[in-house]
Amino acid sequence: MIPDGARRAAMSIVYFLLLVGVLVLIHELGHFVAAKLLDVKVLRFSIGYGRPLFRVKARETEYQVGIFPLGGYVRILGVEGDDIDPRDRGRSFATRPLWQRVLVIFAGPAANLLLPIVIYFVFFAGHTELPAAVVGDVYEDSPAARAGIEAGDAVLAIDGQGVRYWEELERAIRRRGGKEVHLKLQRGRKVFEKYVVPLEEVVRRRDGTSDVQGRIGITRAPFLPTVGVIDAGSPAGQARLQTGDLIISVDGRPVTNWSDIARLGRVARQSDIVYFRGEAIPGVPQIRLLEPGIARLMPRTQDHLKQTTYSGIENAEMFVAHVDPGTPADLAGLRPGDLITALDGQPVKHWSVLDQRLLSAPERTWKLTWRRADGDSIREHKDVPVTQVWRKELDQYGHTVERLVFGARNDVERGQGKLIPIEGRFGYAVSKAVERTGETIALMVGGFVRMLGGDSPSESLGGPLTMYRIASVSGEQGWDTFLLLLALISVNLGLINLLPVPVLDGGHLLVFAIEAARRKPLSTRSRERVQMAGLAFIVLLTLVALRNDLARYVFS
Fold first, then answer.
1. Catalytic choice (28, 170, 314, 317)
2. Active site residue 28
3. Low-confidence ranges of the chain (pLDDT < 50)
4. 131-219 has which fold?
5. 55 — phi, psi (to 5°)?
């Protein structure tokens, strides 16, 4: 029986060889196909390197499998200074018109850029359903809430243009920040119209990236009706409700989202509540059984003049579940079980709102307010200073990333939005494959530009150990993850090969451009100097990547 460690190590090597092998083979296959289509003579196409295990000659080209299974290569007549038979002079790469030489060289990187389209197509072709353009929930005090939009409303059209899927709705709203939007909606059998002006907001992420989006305060996935109770003496506490209870009906009416519970808190009459409570299985704490329960809630009036009521039901989403040691949240005194209520004196009712407000000004000091149960009493920690910090971390693939850290998290899950069948699955898969590949290319190009401009650290470069690591991790997560990684690295390889650096394909294209401008080829001496400069650059990058690998995986 093979030990688990040995099996995992063997599979990691297989994933690494497969990742690198496929990428290089696809690249060389691009050159091979272009040469064949243009009738440039191909001497050999090899899968792998080294002594051939198998070789066959078909017409003029040798096809072989090398003993070292890592990629492959293609040998084209006239590329490496071959002795050319006079009969083949017209089919030599060196004698072909400039545009044909450009196509043969460009075909390698192009093949790497086309591979993701194929992978993404297969990935999206497996989808049968998409999220529908149906409102899962509505943020309190948002443009959508003020317009009277409710959870469950289906959006039929935006500014007269029909929508079916949530991504169409989201894309249209994002582009219309600050501009009035005309929505056609359906609620049950009723069709009606609303006019909403999306807020133009900067949406920030913890890695420092951001973009400007129009937002009206709706979500696809509903906030689950999971309640929190911090005051044991409140009506909810006296009804024996507990934090984490999932409400499924109130007075016989089904409850599907938090908006229904928020409305319940404003009702002064007695209500009968049916809920599910997760009970841990002894010895298996990660699995919880859902036990049904019934509670009778009797809210009490707080202010007769304003007709406000108090039920003691809080949003479980705002209860802290985890606090990482040494983080700003930990140093401020936050602990699991605390209920966050306000930031800079303004109430916060959803964790995503808290997160975005913290990210809106990463460097400033905020004043955080929370409540904590202390026996039979509730203590309020008001306006406690909190400042986030930037921290370098290794992601799952071993890359050094810098993230903004707060340090407190909840553990409340979101609900499942409505799904509908995809119309025209083939066209959907093609369009999404092209779109995703374009987004990946744009992301990679942006990263290259930042790196060349000095905004992105050289620590982000990775060598063979990094490739081995990400191949191993993605392979263990399943073939879907591995193929998506293959698509990502393929784009990376294609773009790197297009860099105007001698030795790379982009360097050859640069030389062709110079020769076209000069209207004569470079001298042999000039070509040698260009090649040496390119080789020095590649060696420098390789040394930096190897240094990063050693720092991450050997000396860390």
1. 28
2. yes
3. none
4. Pdz3 Domain (2.30.42)
5. -145, 135
